Amino acid sequence: MSDLQIKDAVKSYGNVDVLHNINLDIESGEFVVLVGPSGCGKSTLLRMISGLEDISGGEMFIDGELVNDVDAAKRGIAMVFQSYALFPHMTVAENMGFSLKLAKAHKSEINEKVRRAAEILQLEKLLERKPSQLSGGQKQRVAIGRAIVRNPKVFLFDEPLSNLDAELRIEMRAELIQLHKQLKTTMIYVTHDQVEAMTLADKMVVLEGGQVQQVGKPLELYDDPSNMFVAGFVGTPRMNFLPAEVVDVSNTTSTLRFAAENGAPEVVLPMTDGKLAIGSKVSVGIRPDHLHFSPAQSGDLAIPIDVAFVEELGDLTYVYVDTKAGTRLSSQKKDGRHNHGTTGYAVADTTSMFIFDADGHRVRA
Amino acid sequence: MTDAIASPSALASNRRKIKVPSLWTVLKWIAAISVAVVALFPLWWMFSVVFAEAGVPVAVNPRLYPTSFTDGFAKIWEVFEETGYLRAYYVSIMYTILTIAGVLLISSMAAFEFALFDFPGKNALFAVVMLSLMVPLAVTLIPTYLLVAQLGWVNTMQGLVVPGLASAFGLFMMTQFMQSIPKETLEAGRLEGANHFQLYWYIALPLSKNALITLAILTFMKTWGNFIWPLVVSNTREVYTVSQVINQFNSPFSHTTVDVVMTANFLAAIPPILFFVFFQRWIIEGVQMSGSKG
């Protein structure tokens, strides 16, 4: 169990900065998920933690010790790669015991540690097989086993489930949660899949453009996103955004007018004075589960729409609608069936709206 | 519902379907057999000449089969006794083994760096090595000899072996192969605590096994039959290779008969033939892999 601090970490390749001023505090035993779209720098950050990439600037501490110049092998870190990166010429047991062999551990000690890790991961029967004789899920387990054997301070996972099929992914996700409970080791996990992130993380770090956008518990990020990127990234289907303009401001409310062509009326929001200025452009975010399809006008906001298409999943129904201006919105219904025709209103309450300023920052009431 | 049991007439028609080979297949077989005959006949002729009574091979009606095994073994004994052939065998085998070992070691170590790591001047250096592939032997022969002579290595095993160790072709082949080793595999090794040499020894080398076997085979074929370099660098009987001993038989003033010359050739051909028999599969794979016969 170890904690990890990253202070103002920067990574650049030549003149190109790929990570800017990353600050992160990871407590001992935490399961932290770094999440973001492709190219946001999450894997680079993970590789910097592992020591496979140099840190161009800033500092990194593991258990209070500065590790900027500590070799990858000596950081006490184990990593599970997306491609598993097993050694194809070694058996499962040899793969798992490789680090101990290099450390010149006694054979009986190697066997014992490999056996214990294999037991945790139910790999006992596969120990003599070569990686080519294993399925994707088994390879993944071996890669995790190889990490467990080293008894590392920190586990790093680089999109470890992305090569597995959907069913196995869900299964492995549950196993990872179980494993974390069992080992209680600090784990840092990279994924671009926000569902994976939400289900696994104690703490979720959303990255975009080489910057940390927000850090928090998964539901904190969902319920209280601090900017438009996080609001859009966390949650499926993504949050709907409607452009609007502030037309009136009072002590306790602000009045927004949606772009005229959307055909929506003005909406009065509870808002502390001074947060919004008359004339400023904002975006209004509404999650699909707070935007409902209604055949008749109702609620605080009712936007006339045409139904574009419907996805009926049984327990849930997603109704995708187009406003008169052509903006595609998604709404979610819990009762599972859509039988309300093709035109109507997308309705929402002001209490479930998120307001973002022109720069994408959240404006809280 | 269709009839589950085939009717007798259907069975009969199945039996009649024994494939009649097409004309094209027949032609292909004829061509293949012809090539095989052309390739094997000289070997058979060599064998027949060696194991023949004196005079038979040069008779007006030569026999195409062995006529006397006793005479054959007598000739082999004669060659062994009078030419130091056993010594030449030893020199050739050592020359070949040491060259193969050295080429494998040096090529794989250099390829490991070229294929999997970056260092300043890497591309330029690699280009220089590849350019050396285009320089004919005739150009490098004398400078190499002068260098070896200055080192005092003329008529020594190291003089025979060392100049052949740096193989541009070997480096090229191993580099191409090692480039296919995923970087993540090495990174995983690094995180497991492997140092640079251990990455090479425990990961890159075992993963390149096929390429190493191929390179070993190609190096064997090239070294065993090598004539020019041993001719230049070994001038005493102690360091004569098999090919040099055979050359003595071919000299214009030698008085040996054709069957004795053939015996010497026959003895020289045995190791590569055995080698081919044992390593057939890898040789074919290797030639396919490298696109080269060495």
For the biggest sheet of chain A, the summary is: 6 strands, mixed
Number of helices of chain A: 8
Content of β-strand of chain A: 25-35%
Sequence of secondary-structure elements of chain B:
HHHHHHHHHHHHHH
| Tally of domains of chain B | 2
- The domain count of chain A comes to 2
Mean pLDDT across the residues of chain B is 85
Task: Present the secondary structure layout.
The complex is a heterodimer of chains A (365) and B (294).
Chain A lengths: L3 E10 L2 E11 L4 E5 L6 H9 L6 E6 L2 E2 L10 E4 L11 H11 L4 H14 L15 H14 L4 E5 L7 H18 L2 E6 L2 H7 L2 E6 L2 E6 L1 H6 L4 H6 L6 E10 L3 E6 L8 E4 L10 E6 L5 E3 L6 E12 L4 E7 L4 E6 L9 E6 L4 E4 L5 E2 L2
Parallel strand pairs in A: 3-8, 3-9, 6-7, 7-8
Antiparallel strand pairs in A: 1-2, 1-4, 4-5, 9-10, 11-12, 11-14, 12-13, 14-20, 15-19, 16-17, 16-19, 17-18, 20-21
Helix pairs in contact in A: 2-3, 2-4, 3-4
Chain B lengths: L7 H9 L6 H28 L18 H15 L1 H32 L5 H10 L5 H14 L6 H5 L6 H11 L4 H9 L4 H12 L1 H16 L3 H6 L8 H9 L7 H33 L4
Helix pairs in contact in B: 2-14, 3-14, 4-8, 4-11, 4-13, 9-10, 11-14, 13-14
Could you describe the 3D structure shown?
The complex is a heterodimer of chains A (365) and B (294). By secondary structure, chain A is α+β, with helices and mostly antiparallel strands. Chain A has helices spanning 42-50, 92-102, 107-120, 136-149, 166-183, 194-200, 218-223, 228-233; strands at 4-13, 16-26, 31-35, 57-62, 65-66, 77-80, 154-158, 186-191, 203-208, 211-216, 240-249, 253-258, 267-270, 281-286, 292-294, 301-312, 317-323, 328-333, 343-348, 353-356, 362-363. Chain A has two domains: 4-233, 3-Layer(aba) Sandwich (Rossmann fold); 240-363, OB fold (Dihydrolipoamide Acetyltransferase, E2P), CATH 2.40.50. Chain A starts with a strand and ends with a strand. The N and C termini of chain B lie far apart (63 Å).
